[in-house]
Amino acid sequence: MSRPTQFTIDLQALCENARTLKRLAGPRSTMAVVKADAYGHGAVPCAKALAPLVDAFAVAIGEEAIALREAGINLPILVLQGPHSRQEAQVMSSAGLWPAISSERQIDWLEQSGVQFERVWMKCDTGMHRLGFMPHEIASARSRLTTHSANDIVLMSHFADAETPDSRLTERQLTRWHEVSDASSSGSFSNSAATTGQIATRENWIRLGYSLYGGSLVALPEKFSLKPVMQFESRIASVRWIDVGESIGYGGRWVARRRSRIATIPVGYGDGYPRAARDGTPIGTQEGIVLLAGKVSMDMITADITDLPVLNFGSPVTLWGNSPSIDEVAGHCDSIGYELCTRITQRAPRRFHHVTSDRH
Ligand SMILES: Cc1ncc(COP(=O)(O)O)c(C=O)c1O
Question: Which residue segment(s) compose the domain that 304 sits in?
Fold first, then answer.
């Protein structure tokens, strides 16, 4: 088939990002978060590329961990939601996974099934208030886990607002973290934003997701510059002139204020390009940026290319990647890049650029 729309996944860039972030991590161990199919980038190829560079992987749910094991990933895998039943606790133990435990109910399942884990992560709720033990519950949960189910415990928590400088919420979370964590035992708090923002905390593990794929919720200093791993690309499939006052696409949202040259690109929300994208969302071409004009359809988008007459049938376009970045596009869609890459669909092929072995 020859529709020119595709995702290119640059595994070399993924590994370069991992190296850059490891420099920031210093002596802390690095966990690569590859949940939700590695944020849409392909969990198995990404995990295989990252395996020589990281200390462990994290996924959200048991099924994601089992799929990695079946694909031959042997590094430790943390399951961030832990088991959802007693039976799942058994499966996780048999597969040698690390469960994150965040409720007494989950500890009950571990005890009832009599399973033993080499390591269990215990989640503390320092302020996100979704999952985890409250600080005053930590001691008793730890004692139950070490008595019955785990040889080793890593205390973990999760930042709710690490990307906001001087966040009061971050300050509050850190205060609680320092009350419950202990310099002599293992801990993990930082996500991507806490790592790139260099939020100082007591921990010996960091958990990196979005930054590995080259995205960031905030502008990063040059020295930490990360490379986009995903390029979402297509080519112009049709070009037409429309007169002043004519509109484009569903609902006629964009109306020509001048005689305009319009390009149609064969990509739409059926591929994961967000329907929420507003007029003016940037689209990259080799000659510069052009702007989305008209509502996103399931299979097509349209752009005003009047100012770049060299663009024509077959000209390549970048929906997101090097330019514009996924974070810039997300800013025009009331979303974040995390959602955009996670919601790409299976329709357009993902092509992987593999790591050349001398760079490992
Ligand atoms: C518990 C936990 N840790 C780490 C991460 C990684 O976060 P990020 O992708 O911002 O690095 C996530 C992502 O949602 C998470 O839920």
Answer: 230-353
Same domain, 73 and 111: yes
Does residue 50 belong to any structural domain of this protein?
A: yes
Using one digit for the tens of pLDDT, what is the confidence trace for 134-143?
999 999 999 9
Are 207 and 263 found together in one domain?
Answer: no
Atom of ligand 1 nearest to the CA of 60: 16
CA 198 – CA 211 distance, rounded (Å): 13
Q: What is the pLDDT of residues 291-330, one digit of tens each?
A: 999 999 999 999 999 999 999 999 999 999 999 999 999 9
222 occurs within a structural domain = no
In a domain, 220, yes or no: no
Which amino acids bring their CB within 6 angstroms of ligand 1?
Answer: 33, 80, 158, 191-193, 207-211
Q: Tell me the pLDDT tens digit for each residue of 52-102.
A: 999 999 999 999 999 999 999 999 999 999 999 999 999 999 999 999 999
Q: Which of 356, 324, 330, 354 is nearest to 342 (CA)?
A: 330
User: Is the previous residue joined to 83 through a cis bond, with omega within 30 degrees of 0?
Assistant: no
In a domain, 358, yes or no: no
Which residues are tagged catalytic?
35, 250
